[in-house]
Amino acid sequence: MDCCVCTTMPLILRPPRNTICGACYEGVRTIINMMNGFESEKAKTITSPVDSPVSWRNSSKTLDDCIRLCSEQIEQFNQQKQDLVFLRGFLAAFKEQIHTDILISPGNHGPPIPAHKSVLAARSEIFKNMLECDECKAAPTCNTITIPDLNHEELESLLEFLYSGTLPLEKLEKHVYALSQAADKYIIPHLLKYCERFLLNSLSTCNAFETLEVADSCSNQNLKETAFNFLVKNIEFMVSSPKFEAFVHRCPHLTVQLVSRAFMNGSK
Hints:
The chain has helices spanning 22-44, 59-95, 117-123, 125-132, 134-138, 152-164, 169-185, 189-201, 208-217, 221-233, 235-239, 242-250, 252-266, and strands at 102-106, 113-115, 144-147. By secondary structure, the chain is mainly α. A three-stranded mixed sheet has the order 2-1-3.
């Protein structure tokens, strides 16, 4: 008997009869591990053999549990995909400028970007307060606000995130520092956490000083401590890098903290 995957292979590539290919083997092993996991959980619920005349080691029932769990996970995954497709309608409204009612201008005098007041207000308390201020309500022709901290590309990435909840990796990598500071200033917690995860996963000798700097400016203690620990661990290399002198001039208070930590770490 051949496994289902093997029967789809050209005859010359098939393994000997009554053997199983790597993909099917991994699938079977996963199912067995799941069954063992169910059995372990059920065994924990047994207080004594007398209380449980029926053995929990009923492989048929355990396999049914695995199939049921897999079906539930597949159904949940499909539902999440449908929800994502549904929510992408907001991004389409932004990109296609459907019924936009406000212009957002970047700080470098670049072209304004059409957006929707309702989306801005829903995503940020600061934007909500800006749009509800007396001056905006009293002037119906005033349909433009300016975000002085961001250039046109950064502003476009910020708005794309507000509409979709995500960003392409290349945009996030390019604008992560500006987006982190905007998320902190305009109180967008989801974006702040999104940037934090990226910075933690990409921390290296190439960006450690910049990461520490943005963590300090955003009062992100977790990111700040991680960056400090990384820099202390690699202190000999970091102080000899060309970026160190510029960092000293930009952030003397962080430099003092870094040197103090490195000294204390070396004296242990």
